[in-house]
Amino acid sequence: MRRRGGDFGLGVWGAGDWGRGVWGAVGKGGEESVHPLLGHYESPLPPLYELPPLAPPSRASCSRCPCVVPDQKTKFESDELFRRLARETEVRYTGYRDRPLEERRQRFQAGVREGHTEMAFMTNGTNMYLQLATGFNSKEVDFEKEPGKVHLRSCFIMNGVCVRWRGYVDLERLDGVGCLEYDEEAAAEEDRFLREEIEKYKARLREFEEKQRAFRVPTTSHAHHAHSHAHAEQANIQVR
Question: What is the fold, at CATH topology level, of the domain defined by 72-188?
């Protein structure tokens, strides 16, 4: 089978040849000759080199890596940024700042009902993208608590600490008051997960060390046997 190809003079895979195992080589005339690939060949001879030692287990191999620091509450209470954001201060909606005010009002309410919004602390300019739960029994979005305002709550992890954004926004001015709170419940859950992952990593490390010891034993025995055999041969030569 022959097909038209370019004049690159290089072997190329055909677009539909991945499942058939064929290789195309372009000839001088610009035609591509297709040949079946050889099957995988396994040599019956033993390998010339020993296998490399196993790699240690990686922390990134778990399905979800811990995202928090060991002592979250201490960091929340001592970190200067958290201490500033923990005080109730002026906040403002920062989305679509280049659009007219009426359009921004509509987009703000639409985004909140969809479960997201952008808010900034005006004291230090910290901008946050908040994700909100909008289910039937959700307490994170409340348009009914106070007329003309929407009360928001959003839980997330910031700088290794579980926090909760809490505040309200005026639906006309698109500003309000907000702060960050330490999320005790989420912090306890993340701490438990962190401890579990540390224990799993230690167990995998112990298993790795045991495999390393088991790998070294046959190699040592083989070296001892080879040394004994060489010593016996040398003694035999001396006898002769």
Answer: Polyomavirus Enhancer Binding Protein 2; Chain: A; (2.40.250)
